[in-house]
Amino acid sequence: MTKQHANWSPYDNNGGSVVAIAGADYCVVAADTRMSTGYSILTRGYSKISKLADKAFMASSGFQADVKALQKHLSAKHSIYQHQHNKQMSCPAMAQLLSNTLYFKRFFPYYAFNVLGGLDNEGKGCVFTYDAVGSYERVGYSAQGSGSTLIMPFLDNQLKSPSPLLLPAVDAVTPLSEGEAIDLVKTVFASATERDIYTGDRLEITVLNANGTRTEFMELRKD
Fold first, then answer.
1. Average pLDDT over residues 31-39
2. Which residues have a Cβ under 8 Å from the Cβ of 181 and sit 6 or more positions away?
3. If you count DSSP H runs as helices and E runs as strands, how many of each does the chain have, helices first?
4. pLDDT tier at 161 (50, 70, 90 boundaries)?
5. 3-class DSSP state for residue 34?
């Protein structure tokens, strides 16, 4: 009789979708608040967006225990940076730190799929998108998580970022106004919620601009 071994994994995927859109003078970072495992909903009110600095917000899907460990590590690094430089880290600097942190753990990765959104030193919106081992790119918009395969084609169709290979380089910001970007985010989440069982319950939208930061909520379907 062959011995049966338990198929144990240190990882889980708690689902959910995250989106970020950069504009000329704003950035929108959004995520749903459902956290699941398998066919069970663990909670309907879990925020996937974390503030890393005044002008840098990270939204993360994947294994939420790893996400929490990653947030804690970045918070400690940012605290050290503030003591050494007497200022907050910029969004592009935080993007590089996040990449380095993920790459350092590449042999036992944080099972976290992140988008980082904020404002750069010129006040322009910036979005950085990542894989689990730290490869990243500055883009005009991005989606990660269980609904990303539904959301990204929609965003590509509506926004069509210029190729990064074009010369001279074209700014990777979207042509939408802030209000239009927020409406688009609401539309893509309402659409993804219809087809993805891991996305739903409530949408949290964080908007960054020259006036500061604000948060909006929208109810999504709960089944």
1. 97
2. 21, 23, 26, 28, 174
3. 4, 12
4. low
5. coil
